[in-house]
Amino acid sequence: MSHVQHRILLVDDEPNLRKVLGALLKQQGFEVHAESDGAAALARVQAAPPRTFDAVITDLRMPNLDGMGLLRALAVHEPGLPVILLTAHGSVESAVEAVKLGAFDYLEKPFDKDQIHQILQKAIATRERSGPTVQPSPPPGEVADPCAAAGMVGRSSQMQAIREIVGTVAASPSTVLITGESGTGKELVARALHLGSSRRTHPFIKVNCAAIPAGLVESELFGHERGAFTGAVSSRAGRFELADGGTLFLDEVSEIPKEIQVKLLRAIQESEFERVGGVKTLRVNVRLIAATNRNLEELIRDNHFREDLYYRLNVVPIHLPALRERLEDLPHLVAHFVQRCNERLGKAVQGLTPAALAALERYPWPGNIRELENLIERMVLFASGPLVDEDDLPDAYAGEAGGSAPSPTESSTRLTLDAREERQIRLPLSSLGHDLKEAVKAGSRLVEEALIREALAKTDGNVTRSARALGISRRSLQSKMKELGLRESPEDAAATQAQAKPAT
Predict the structure, then answer these.
(1) Sign of CA dihedral 193, 196, 197, 199
(2) Rounded to an integer, what distance in angstroms lies between the CA atom of residue 120 and that of residue 25?
(3) How far apart, in whole angstroms, are the C-alpha atoms of residue 31 and residue 325?
(4) What is the CB neighbour count within 10 angstroms for residue 7?
(5) Largest Cα–Cα distance of the chain, in whole Å?
(6) Band of the pLDDT at 457, cuts 50, 70, 90?
(7) What pLDDT was estimated at residue 96?
(8) What is the mean pLDDT of the chain?
(9) Taking residues 149-161, what's their average pLDDT?
(10) pLDDT tens digits for 278-308?
(11) CATH for 7-129?
(12) How is residue 2 annotated by DSSP?
């Protein structure tokens, strides 16, 4: 090791990982600076003199600004700064793509300390060989299809109209208000607007206004100065500052307390504000996009939302239809999610049978595209053959038209693995060598088996109840149990025989 203590910027939204990895890097002689998300990390790099940091280690999946977004932003702000991606085994393909886009390398979780040290040494050596000045890279070209790049899928007339609006307004600075039911893909439209603009190389900052405690909304949006309130031990930039030059996406904007709405209105109109506890007026260049699943006009009548703020947000309205209103897109969405789940889970499911698709077209989809995506992931994970049939679908989805959606209790049932089971899954993966595809397949099989065993244990071996808890059909569970050599309870076996016996 050199006598120079190299500075590493560690970015991860998991506090435990930051603590463990940070301690490891310090043991190896590095000076470690940590941030909990990409937006804060980018702000730190932008505020520091050039070449302050020798390398960045960042998680791939994070709120606000993810690892890919941070990579793109750093490539513009400080070209030559090595970025190393942390990724789980299911996201390795994304990490490989990141390397193609300029990341120095990636580390797969759970990582090896010697490997970390080796990659960092190579990154720092490369950084030092680049010399004191680095030629800025040319700005990336326009995104050919920002809607596709953002992950929007659909060929219906409604989606074609939305694509046209995005293509028209993306390059403008106009504020956009996206409305629609929960799960319809409002964030994807916001990202498409960002990717289609000249701001694409700058941060895309997402704020879920419903997830912020009411007393912290002002601080989250506008930042605060040290000592502004109890617990404010240091100054902190808000989301408006972090989004400077880029796009700020306020999801569930209806949940912003009314007393904060006047300050938000000023920030939008004047592009200026003060931090909480501060006196200095800050100016930013931010394109604002807002979204809500509520009727803002009703909230105005009920005196819960400012009318002037509504008109300032609603410059360009975009309404997203519910999935039940665009069922012609269902086959395309299913194919898209099946392919994505195959890649993540190491499966080879070809799709759904016509009967299964017809059943899904009869379902009301209260959770919209988000519900569909979750269902497809479940079906791909538990699929025992190349096609998912109607009998493989959970009862709620295989019913006739007008069938009811799962109850809140049923839909919230999630079987989780404890730490012991997670370790059992990781051990075989570590012994499979470097064949990633086989490791992913083995890992998904082990997850499958662990979930089934847990469900059976919790239901005392009752197949029907276990299938309901897992969100799959009874037939699918029986097929999987046969593969795993698991026996049905005597009661279930008798019921199965009775169902199979022809009527006399």
Answers:
(1) positive
(2) 10
(3) 54
(4) 17
(5) 89
(6) confident
(7) 65
(8) 82
(9) 92
(10) 999 999 999 999 999 999 999 999 999 999 9
(11) 3.40.50.2300
(12) -
Write down the architecture of domain 146-321 according to CATH. 3-Layer(aba) Sandwich (3.40)
* Predicted model pTM: 0.59
How far is it, in rounded angstroms, from Cα 409 to Cα 168? 43
Nearest C-alpha neighbor of 64 from the set 53, 54, 73: 73
Fold of 327-498: Helicase, Ruva Protein; domain 3 (1.10.8)
Rounded Cα distance between 110 and 29, Å, is: 21
d(CA 288, CA 267): 10
Residues of the chain with CATH 1.10.8.60: 327-498
pLDDT at 431: 41
Q: How high is the pLDDT of residue 244?
A: 92
Residues 94, 60 contacting (CB under 8 angstroms): yes
Strands 247-251 and 204-208: parallel
Query: To which residue do tokens 């025989």 refer?
Result: 497
Q: Which two tokens stand for residue 85?
A: 């991606």
CA 371 to chain centre: 15
The 3-state DSSP class for residue 144 equals coil
Which comes out higher in pLDDT, residue 346 or 371? 371
Pick the closest to residue 299 from 283, 316, 314 (CA basis). 314
